Amino acid sequence: MSTAQDSATQPKDSQDRRVDLDFPLSLAQERIWVSEQLADAGSHYGAPVVFALRGELDPGLLEVALTQIVERHEVLHSVVSVASGSPRFVVAPARPVRLDQQDVASEQEMTERVSAATEAPFDLLHGPLVRFGLYRLGPADHRLLVDIHHLIFDGVSAGVLVQELAELLAAGAEGRTPELPVLPVAYGQYAVAERRSLAEGLLDSQIEHWCTQLRDAPLALELPTDYRRPARMSFHGASHSFTLPASLGVELAEAARRWSVTPYVVMLAGWAAVLGRYAGQEDMLVGTPMAGRTEPGTEDMIGMFVNVLALRVRPERDQTFLGLVNQVRRASIEGLVHQEAPIEKVIERLRPPRDPSRNPLFQTAFVYDEALEESLHVAGVTIEGAAPPPRTASKLDLSIEVVERDGRLEAEIEYATDLFGPETIRRIATHYTTFLANAVRSPNRPLCEIPLASQEEHALLVTRQSGDGASYDPVVLPSLFEAQVARRPDACAVSCGDLRWSYRQLNERANRLARALIARGTGPEELVGVALPSGPLLVLALLAISKAGAAFLPLDPAYPAQRIEYIVGDARPALLLTDAAGATAQPWTTPILILDEQQTGCDAGTDASNLSDAQRSHPLTLAHPAYIIYTSGSTGRPKGVAVTHEGLAGLSGAQIEAFGVRSDSRVLQFASPSFDASVSELCMALLSGATAVFVPGLHDFVGGSFEAVLVRETVTHVTLPPSVLASLSPDEDLPGDLTIVVAGESLTADLAARWSGRCSVFNAYGPTEATVCATLIGPLTGNEGNEPPPIGRPIAGTQIFVLDEALRPLPVGVAGELYLGGAGLARGYLSRPDLTAAGFVACPFGPAGGRMYRTGDRARWRDDGNLEFVGRRDDQVKMNGFRIELGEIENVIAAHPEVEQTAVVVREDRPGLRQVVAYVVAEAPDEEILAHAASRLPGYMVPSAVVRLQNLPLTTNGKVDRRNLPAPDDRTSVPDRSPGTAREQQLCKLICEVLDLDAVGVDESFFELGGQSLHAVRLLSRIRGVMGVEIGIKALFQAPTAALLAAQIDSGQIAVITRPALVPSHQRQSAVWDQS
């Protein structure tokens, strides 16, 4: 790379030279400079341009031409000076350009060298801010790299540069004076005039216009991301280029003419519509740059003039595409009228909550441009634009630039690699193309009806919706069990301590009890309650009820008496089976039958052979209910779910095959009898010929010697909620062939990684309304990354639909509500036709009469064909205007090595005071846990308080009992608390000085007091100069109060510097200052 070194002669018609003058940064430059301070390292604002030079090139002539351009435009030989936190440009002497020519053997080598050259950071303090490189592919084939900082260069500048280069080369070759337009003002004069207009209030009306437009706008575009959003933007990025089909380009141009708008308006409307579908938003802000060259003479200058407008776009689902186009047209016209309002001043006036993980106001941008003139022929050389080096930075979450070139529409999506993977971006590009094609052909269709997915993708989704694998014979539960009795009659069916029942013994006892139940009038469509603790007697009762043809209603005796009373009163079972203890536990209003292990409540001489439909009141079919499980209701009243024999048959077959359950397996019976997982565990064992293992007082071992129980009982299969699994240690002795099925709650990435290397781990998902399990994945490899593992694919006989609000399928990557269909669906809610109609809706896919269940969960399809659980609809909480997922916070906190368990909730213990509270079982101190969260999560997601517990309260199902989490201590700060130390007093004084305030409390947030990014830079500069302490902007965002900053300085987390207050950066070092 070459740089400008010595003085050179300017063209005669250029402006007078201005050397050693300084001037303020323009508002556009200040925006970029502040953004650079927020970056981790290096510059993400390079703007490299590459030109192909073909023909007999005179490198000396090229050097002279480039030198003249550098001298002609003062920003090209200026550097940045920082005093008291305020950046200014200083005009330095121009130096001649010396090109270091490099021979390259191929385009690939040239691209690699160009990329390496542009990775070198700019030294804003010493310059140069423009660098040149010349690469020779052959005697008549060169590439010129102009590597320039965005502080002094924009898109229009590229056109000015190539036009001036062509004229200067031609003039040099012909020995004449170059004919270049006179520049009436220098860039510094423009910057001063802009500041003057702002100070005199000439832009106030435009600023107020934007404030009115944006005051109630959404703060964030909530795009579903591939990776967890980091605590602050790193600006690491990449790009994906694609070309729209030529036929689509013609259609778009014709549509724009027909609708009297520009292609820019049509394509911006399409971009907003696609992102709206991805984010599930009908209101968003899209950044779009304006050239900003409204002053005469600026069109011929090289410099940074661009202002960015935040256009508010509302892609409402029922609006037509043409309606959206007209809306965007109006917004664009208003934007042009008010384009001089600096976006920074709009942000300062609006004062949105500070979030270093996002660009303020908008996180996506749309750029539409026409390509520079294809080629220029001068002095025997043809100058053409060439492909720039690959992008390695992204200033926003996601942005797109569309360039019209020779009738082609070439697009490039720039994206943050911290958030998105390349497959997702390629998919968005495909969806954008597909949407535009469908939209221009059907502009009067509502947006929600315009497909994103191509026909091929739609066909793929259809195949994914249904579970594959073996289909299982539809057989009722008694017949499935009796098949195992016939196959292995003497094998152990049930184990509990020293008690063992063979399949024959269990079957005969169940048959005798079933006949007794039939004699009492029990049969299909009847309901029998069972109030028995986990154990062999419970198994006997459930099988007997099923053999009689009735549905069983398990009631865990450990449940509160009031809940049992409600369930019995609501379900109205014809009979209730219990033991002697249960008979006196509460005043039953239902007839009871007392059982014990010696006799089954009936004559021991009763026939013990299998029953047939002839002995039942009427035939037992797959459509009859097999059991009723009561689940918690949103109204606070539990509701009974009626599950059929058909669903149970499909579940059992799918799980036995997937989990590798064999006749010699031993399946631990962990779940509460009132939880549907208990039915799954029992069927997994008894319908495969395996042993159902019961352990008296099993739940007392959780958090203690549970692992020893697994070894002692030689357990091969166990189903556990994540909250229980988190209390166990994979480092303890465990059975060698242990399979763990995790279900009931979301499995964290940390928990999956810890256990998957030790045993076979499956992640299962499914509500009671879909017969326990609808999807599963496993065995997990432990290489699933830092994100929670997916919930897998549908099991055989199950259908999965990810739908929007209009019940339309969503394409891969787009989150929507999860609906379930297929044979596993429950009948509905017992005696609650209103709830059944709301939860079980008509399925628009497939034969008439089909149903699907609305889960209330949000999910999305992944590229690998698995389903990703996004969260509950009712778990989506808004804090300070930002949408958060509590599960995401839990995953981050759980990843701390000294946190055993965690639960996160939003509490409002005092009216108006909503806070995120983390409950932990941990050894790490609260401050360390919060710092861990703050380093990985945006500030608005970091808990306000940590509550330490010995154990998280669990429900009888083993899930975290969030309703019984205690309220945190009152930890809210007193806003007007006075400084308690000299350091706090000094910091408060400096904050007042920077923000022009009379007084501040030590617990008041700098940003909530009105501090913006530039204020932050000035504050840090003052702290450094006055206190000799260097604080990075990152630290200020994490500790935005005087009290927190003082505590970090006192604890040594922020170092006291010993070097001078301002040290120049080395040319090859990062141009970022004030970074920790």
TrEMBL record:
- CDD domains to which the protein is assigned, alphabetical: A_NRPS_CmdD_like (cd17652), LCL_NRPS-like (cd19531)
Q: Kindly list the cofactors needed.
A: pantetheine 4'-phosphate
The highest taxon in the source lineage is Bacteria
GO MF term (any one): phosphopantetheine binding
SUPFAM superfamilies (UniProt xref): Acetyl-CoA synthetase-like (SSF56801), ACP-like (SSF47336), CoA-dependent acyltransferases (SSF52777)
Name all Carrier domain ranges: 978-1053
Q: Does the keyword Phosphoprotein apply?
A: yes
Give me any GO biological process, just one.
Answer: secondary metabolite biosynthetic process
Q: Where is the composition biased (Basic and acidic residues)?
A: 959-974
Q: A single GO CC term, please? A: cytoplasm
Q: Which InterPro entries does this UniProt record tie to the protein?
A: AA_adenyl_dom (IPR010071), AB_hydrolase_fold (IPR029058), ACP-like_sf (IPR036736), AMP-bd_C (IPR025110), AMP-bd_C_sf (IPR045851), AMP-binding_CS (IPR020845), AMP-dep_synth/lig_dom (IPR000873), CAT-like_dom_sf (IPR023213)
Q: Where are the transmembrane segments?
A: none
Question: Region Disordered: what ranges?
Answer: 957-981
Q: Which UniProt keywords apply?
A: Phosphopantetheine, Phosphoprotein
Descriptive protein name: Carrier domain-containing protein
Which species is this UniProt entry from?
Streptomyces venezuelae
